[in-house]
Amino acid sequence: LLYGKFYDHGTNSKTGFRKKNGLKEGEDKKLEEVMRVIELQMDKNSFFLKPGYTINEFANDIELPVYQISKSINNLRGVSFVDYTNQKRIQYCISKFSQGEWLNLTLEAVALECGFSHRNSFTKVFKKFKDQSPSDYLKKLMDHPSH
Questions:
Q1: At what angle do helices 27-45 and 55-62 cross, to 10 degrees?
Q2: Phi, psi of 18 (to 5 degrees)
Q3: The model's pTM
């Protein structure tokens, strides 16, 4: 990125050859650069904690086009923007639990703290990424605090 614009690092535009991953030569470097910006901004500003946060809002916040954000996350993380933000939310939640925080909060309160609008959506997403309910995760954590 150079002043909010992409700098072409010498992509061979004459041949337009695509690599094995379906990307043109040099395109993967651009996507990695965009992904670094995405990660930095998402983590630095905790955008994922905003309930109902959309890719359009994120694009406006970090001043990058939606298609670049979407393509980078899809190609480099293998998920949609929604799944990407939900993964960030669950990782945040797990870190809070691991640090001994939030252990006395209700699941409704934890869900809201993580950026979910409802306990049910939080539980569903938690199960999707951790293969267990938040209640089961907490029970195991309390039974074996060193893990």
A1: 90
A2: -100, 145
A3: 0.80
